Amino acid sequence: MELLVPEFGLVIFQTIAFLLLMFVLGKFAWKPVLAAIKEREQSIDDALNKADLAKQEMARLTTQNEELLKSARAERDHILKEAKTLKDSIINEAKTQAHTEGAKLIEKAKIEIENQKKAALFELKSQVSTLSIDIAERVLRAQLEDKAKQEDLVANLLKDVELN
Amino acid sequence: MDCSHVFDFKVKRLIVVFTLFLAFFSVTSPALAQVDTLQAAENSHSEPEGKEKFDIGKFALHHIADSHSWHVIGEYYIQLPVFLYTSNGLVSFSSADFLYDDEAKVVVEKGGQRFVKMHEKIYYASATPNEHGQYVQLDEKHHASNARPLDLSVTKNVCTLLISIVIILAVFLNVASGYKKRKGKSPKGLQSWMEPIILFVRDDIAKPNLGHKYERFMPYLLTVFFFIWFNNMLGLVPFLPGGANLTGNIAVTMILATATFLLTVFNGNKYYWKHIFAPDVPKLMWIVMIPVEIVGIFTKPIALMIRLFANITAGHILVLSLICLIFVFNSLYIAPISVAFAVFIGAIELLVAFIQAFIFTILSALFIGMAIEEHH
């Protein structure tokens, strides 16, 4: 039964000591400790949230990049196609142009040839005439040099010619 | 490791404190103790019925009770100082002056007053001894009926109280400094030992019972939890810094329960008081309900007080009784069995030490939570 009767001295000491302990711990231990734990939890939460946001941002960027890449690829294809058609058209154009130019040139050449031919023929004709005149001259000269023959000839001719 | 280094430092500091403490109080020389035991032996020879058989109940109760001296080892005792507030003012002397007497046979005269010590309680001595040579009047139950001065002595329990406070402060100021040093970083050393327990008190005791207003009561709940837990553990240490039965002392549990009671009463909101003085029952029932509710205000802290006291005291008595089996059977062969049982109970007591601290704290939180609960 003695155990159940609180001793007054211990009651006093316990009261003072416990209040003191609670005060000191409350001020110098629990307050900073709980504040630090809370702060840390907050910062962890923040970090996790930030990581989540970063993940989302990352995903967004990735899809964006993919889209960009896709569009770039499409653009490239388009440009290539365009270039190809352009090339083809240029080549075709060049070909036709070359054809026409060639044809023109050929035509010109033909005309020139024709002209040259004409000029050459003309020249030839004049040459032939002079030559023939020369020849004729020479022949005549040679013929005329021999008087007897001339006279013969004339006689023959005259003989042939019957005076009508 | 870093933590062991920090802990070493704290242990050294504690040792210094404890050494100073020892230096302050007198340690009786073995010679004196020798003389005294001889005297005691002679005394007991003159009273043959006292030595006849080993009284296990008396032994256990003596060990769990408070004391003015502290057994170190063998015949060494620390004699603690006595402070008495008498009708003539404060009187102080060393308990060594009682010469190991605990049967009111040695009278100490101080400040013109005479004191005797019987069963670790100090009484004003009677003018003449009774037939057993005791300077007290005994009633029919052999209890002293003399008047008692107000005993403010530094007893074994008070010493343990102070030591436990030094330990708790050393541990938690170290923990707090860890939070300051490694701000926002993960805990280390002692800090990482204590943080889960602090979080346990916060998340599993305070938050579920107190709701969003839990922060106001955290200092009390944490202090009461660690005070009870550390002292329960110290009580289980069988040698010097421990060994006292502080949390198994009704005065200590009474103060702790009173703290919970006061917090409940002063924080109770109008719903709490309405529930007690105007409960939602037919008015005729109030005759029964109101007294029951009023009694309920007091039974809750009283239950807290008795629960802690009884659990810890019971544990101590159990371990002591198991050890005492050796002396009851008066045979060394019983020792292995009784030690094995004592170790087993000791292991359970380690668990009980934590559980009782937890129960006290969670019930305190629950009672306060009931008082501050908002009804919608």
Spatial sequence of strands, sheet with the most strands of chain B? 1-3-2
How much of the sequence of chain B is in beta strands? 5-15%
Order of helices and strands of chain A: HH
Query: Could you tell me the number of beta strands of chain B?
Result: 9
Number of helices of chain A: 2
Brief summary of the model shown:
Chain A is built from two helices and no strands. Chain A is mainly α and 164 residues long.
Description:
The complex is a heterodimer of chains A (164) and B (376). With 164 residues, chain A is mainly α. Chain A contains 2 helices and no strands. Chain A has helices at residues 8-145, 147-160. Chain A is rod-shaped, with a radius of gyration of 65 Å. The termini of chain A are far apart. Chain B is mainly alpha-helical and 376 residues long. Chain B is 61% helix and 10% strand. Chain B has helices at 2-24, 30-46, 48-52, 56-64, 156-181, 190-210, 218-236, 250-267, 270-277, 286-329, 335-372, and strands at 26-27, 69-73, 76-79, 81-86, 89-94, 108-110, 113-118, 121-124, 150-151. In chain B, the strands form 3 sheets. In chain B, strands 1-3-2 form a 3-stranded antiparallel β-sheet, with helices on one face. A 3-stranded antiparallel β-sheet of chain B has the order 5-4-9, with no helix packed on it. Chain B has a 3-stranded antiparallel β-sheet with strand order 6-7-8, with no helix packed on it. In chain B, helix 5 (156-181) packs across helix 6 and helix 6 (190-210) crosses helix 11. Chain B is globular. At the A-B interface, helix 1 of A face strand 9, helix 5, helix 6, helix 7 and helix 8 of B.
